[in-house]
Amino acid sequence: MVLKLFAERLLIVVGEPGALSLDRVNAWTDIEVRVASTEAAVEQALTEFSPTIAFGISGDGIEKPVLRRVLTHPGLRWFSNAGAGVEHLTPWDPDAVTVTNAAGVLSDFLAEFTLTAVQMANIGFPRLAAQQRQSHWQQLEWTPLAGKTISVIGLGHVGRAVARRAKALGMHVIGLRARAIDTPEVDEVFPAERLCNLMARADFVSVHAASTPETKGLIGPSEFSCMHRGVVVLNMARGPVVDEEALLISLDNGKIESAFLDVFNVEPLPNDHPFWRHERVVVTPHIADNVPDWRRRMFDAFLDNLDRARRGAPLQSVVDPARGY
Prior knowledge:
CATH architecture of the largest domain: 3-Layer(aba) Sandwich
Strand order of the largest sheet: 8-7-6-9-10-11-12
Number of domains: 2
Distance between the termini: 15 Å
Structural class: alpha/beta
Mean pLDDT: 96
CATH superfamily of the largest domain: NAD(P)-binding Rossmann-like Domain
């Protein structure tokens, strides 16, 4: 999609403005810039500045509903979301406003985190950690990853980056995507209706699907029943994609060997949630892509896209609100 630019007013919504460098955008004389780092400043900018383009980062004091408020402001033509997930922005009218995301910007870090978890699971880290807490010395055998099968649920930027790294470790990679088209990084690709077949063959199930109404509870009781005993489940995508109650049941009955979870239905994870104390679960606090300069990387990707628009080139990473990605 080509966005015709005129004299644009850019609102940058970020709780930590010092994490961004504005030198590049300030050099463009056809773009007027305003930065808002609090909800009150956002409301003031919407009233006084009336932006036509906005770039928004949630967190650091900027709640997601604030970004939704910016998106729906009359006159806004383009909203750039600093992140791949846009579930906090839906719905919107694509004829009135274009939404882009940051798909792929941090995919290598997410994939590195995921494969670290795969290797930890493979050597039995949850059991070893439990032994350490009990001062119990027992040598456990582990088998190499090479030749084992990983099922990658969702073959977007992150899923494909995970697949590449798993292949490098000698794993057999099978994957799920909406349409079963050939994917170079993957040995076999399955369509959504064959999810159970994918589950049945997995030693590791790694979830990287977008959060949409269609993927809510995608990995639920019937999918867990398809898995063979001893599988490892990893979720580095969005909490609602995996049915947490069904996962707990499968952990308790030993169907699932272990689960490595970075995302949850409710975040922060409530103090009384059983995941915290479950010996087969490793909980991390949504940090799979939390590298020190992630804000700058998101902003640089937006500026690259803005530069494309200024040159009359099509925007990249345009989101279809009907699909959610």
